[in-house]
Each structure stands twice: as structure tokens, then as C-alpha cells.
Amino acid sequence: MKATRKQMMLGGALAATLLAAWFAPSDEEPANAVSAPAARTARSERPAVAAQGAELDVLALRPRDGEDAEQDERALFAAPSWNALPVAAQPGPPVPAAAAPPPQPSMPPPPFKVFGRHQDGTVATVFLFYQEQNLAVKVGDTVAEHYKVESIGPTTMQLRYLPLNQLQSLDLGGSL
């Protein structure tokens, strides 16, 4: 049986592992040449960060035997408390400050331009220019979906702005 390249590589890796295990330091002598009691005192002299509130000192070394360990184990495996917090301690949504009431909506100026008027007996007709359109309006007509003609006088026309139900006057430019 001829050894392949793969088998030779695996055999070399096995030999290197065995040599490393043979020359590895034993458990009895520390690897950094500091004696065990000196290592313990060096670790215990390191200042520990005080736990504040819910923060824990994660890097502090604590012994696993003794009363502290039993308290830690009891706290670790204790049943959670499902009791509600007192009403004063319960977090809630922030209470918004009293906001000022929004300003009252105001009427826009009439979007019409008057370019003429015609009187036929008792019926008055006013000619308006609105968005590139020529309109002939009489009392009772609704114009531009938001304005209703209430009255036509000798110098003014009364329009009701329907969204706010308020009256506006439009100057007709003189008397006839």
C-alpha cells in the first residue's frame, strides 16, 4: 500500500500534536511563573467597580462557595414577580402641555374679477372672470363650488363662502 500525499499530511499533523502535548506545561506549575498565592493576591487587589442600581460588576472575581454563592443562586432561579408597580411608580405616556387652540380658519379673498354687469328689468347679471373662464352669475347661483351669490346691489355683490358659511362682499366698481 502506497501512502498518498493526504495521508502523509495527516500523519505529520498527528506527530506535531503528540509532540505539543508531550512538552506542554503541567497543571501543577503555573505557566507565567507567578506562584498561586501571589496570583490570588494580585487578582484580589484589583479595584472592583461598585454596583450602582441594576448594573453588575461583571469582571469581578467572586468565590463560588459560601453564603454569597447561595444568595446568587437563589436570586438566579427565583420566580419572577408579577405584581404591578405602585401607581406612582408606573411609567406612563408623557402628559402633553396644554396646547393653544388652533387659529380659526379665515376666508380667502374672492377669486373673481368683475368685468361687467347687466340689468334686465329686476334681474341683475354680473359677469365674472374666474380661472380663465367667463361666468355670468345671478342671485342664487353657486360659483366655483364654494361661493353662493346672496344678493347683487348697485355697487357690491354679496357672496356666501360655503365652507365657513360667512358672507363676503365683492366690489362691482360703480353704480348703474
Q: Layout of SSEs?
A:
Elements: H1 5-22, H2 36-44, H3 67-76, E1 113-120, E2 123-130, E3 133-137, E4 142-143, E5 147-152, E6 156-161, E7 166-171
Antiparallel strand pairs: 1-2, 2-3, 4-5, 5-6, 6-7
Describe the structure.
By secondary structure, the protein is α+β, with helices and mostly antiparallel strands. 21% of the residues lie in helices and 23% in strands. It contains three helices and seven strands. It has helices spanning 5-22, 36-44, 67-76; strands at 113-120, 123-130, 133-137, 142-143, 147-152, 156-161, 166-171. The chain has a four-stranded antiparallel beta sheet, with no helix packed on it. The longest helix is centred in the first third of the chain and has 18 residues, at 5-22. The radius of gyration is 47 Å and the shape is elongated. It starts with a helix and ends in a 5-residue tail after the last strand. The model is unreliable at 38-51 (pLDDT under 50).
Shape: elongated
**Biggest β-sheet strands, sense, barrel:** 4 strands, antiparallel
Mean pLDDT score, rounded? 77
CA gyration radius, whole angstroms: 47 Å
- Give the helix/strand class: alpha+beta
Numbering strands along the chain, what is their spatial order in the largest sheet? 4-5-6-7
Proportion of residues in β-strands: 15-25%
